[in-house]
Amino acid sequence: MSRLIEPPPGRQVFTLQFTPSASDIDANGHVNNVVYVRWIQDMATSHWASRQPAEDQARWAWIVLRHEIDYRRALMPGETATGRTWVAETAEGPRFDRFVRIDGPDGAMCAQARTEWCMIDAASGRPKRVTPDIVERFT
């Protein structure tokens, strides 16, 4: 993925800020890479909750199929990062790609990710095709 990702013009973007806690800092003195994975998941679930009615949230759930993450700039203790996430223009059956970019306070990219999520029926755990109304709420 190595080139910087940006949301396409007109795409809905969900934003969260993250300030690392002391336990997020690793032996190298910066935010541990595993913390970025947690933040990516936090962004995805918060984005879903902000856009979907309660009945959809109860009916459908998501599982991660794949994370592809680039790390570029260390986020240091006391720095606040801004995370932005958006989804692909279309879903492929039950799969929906999500993009995340986490920038430091200086605007430089700390980490970015392309993730694949699969929508499942919450009751059965079986994959379910992402419906056009769900895609529309995100794009």
From TrEMBL:
Alphabetical list of SUPFAM superfamilies matching this protein: Thioesterase/thiol ester dehydrase-isomerase (SSF54637)
Keywords annotated in UniProt: Hydrolase
EC number: 3.1.2.-
Signal sequence, renumbered to the chain: none
Enzyme's top EC category: hydrolase
Keyword Hydrolase set for record: yes
UniProt-listed Pfam families: 4HBT_2 (PF13279)
Molecular function via GO: fatty acyl-CoA hydrolase activity
Family from the record: Belongs to the 4-hydroxybenzoyl-CoA thioesterase family.
Name of the molecule in the record: Acyl-CoA thioester hydrolase
Lineage start: Bacteria, Pseudomonadati, Pseudomonadota, Alphaproteobacteria, Caulobacterales
